[in-house]
Design brief:
Strand order of the largest sheet: 3-9-8-5-6
Largest sheet: 5 strands, mixed
CATH class: Mainly Beta
Order of helices and strands: HEEEEEEEEE
CATH topology: Immunoglobulin-like
Radius of gyration: 20 Å
CATH architecture: Sandwich
CATH superfamily: Cupredoxins -  blue copper proteins
Shape: globular
Structural class: alpha+beta
Distance between the termini: 43 Å
Strand content: over 45%
Oligomer: single chain
Number of domains: 1
Length: 111
């Protein structure tokens, strides 16, 4: 067997592992606290998700306004409940609580 064939196998394995590690999505935490989204501005990558946790002791809604302007109601959360939302497409998104209009945030999803 040629010598280069043996040395090429570990390199190929390392390259595959590195490519897989780069594709792992992240999860960002956003708190619903004091009638605010904290933080109110986040920047994530395509495929990442946001975990909204209600620590305000009152119910909140999470509505995402997609990059194309279409709103999508993601449901209600009560104290200590969580809603996880993935973002599969790049763009500028906005989130708000339909119950408390002052609760707004901006989400930038990059490729």
């Amino acid at each position: 067997m040629p010598r280069y064939a043996l040395t090429g196998v570990p390199i190929a394995v390392i390259a595959l592992l590195a490519a897989g590690a780069a594709a792992v999505a992240e999860e960002i935490s956003v708190d619903q606290k004091d009638l605010q989204f904290v933080p109110s501005v986040v920047r994530i990558k395509v495929g990442d998700s946001i975990r909204f946790t209600d620590t305000d002791r009152i119910a909140h809604n999470v509505t995402i306004v997609k990059a194309d302007g279409a709103p999508e109601d993601k449901g209600m959360a009560e104290y200590n409940q969580q809603i996880v939302i993935a973002f599969p497409l790049p763009g500028l998104y906005h989130a708000h609580c339909r119950i408390h209009p002052q609760m707004q945030m901006t989400i930038t999803v990059t490729p």
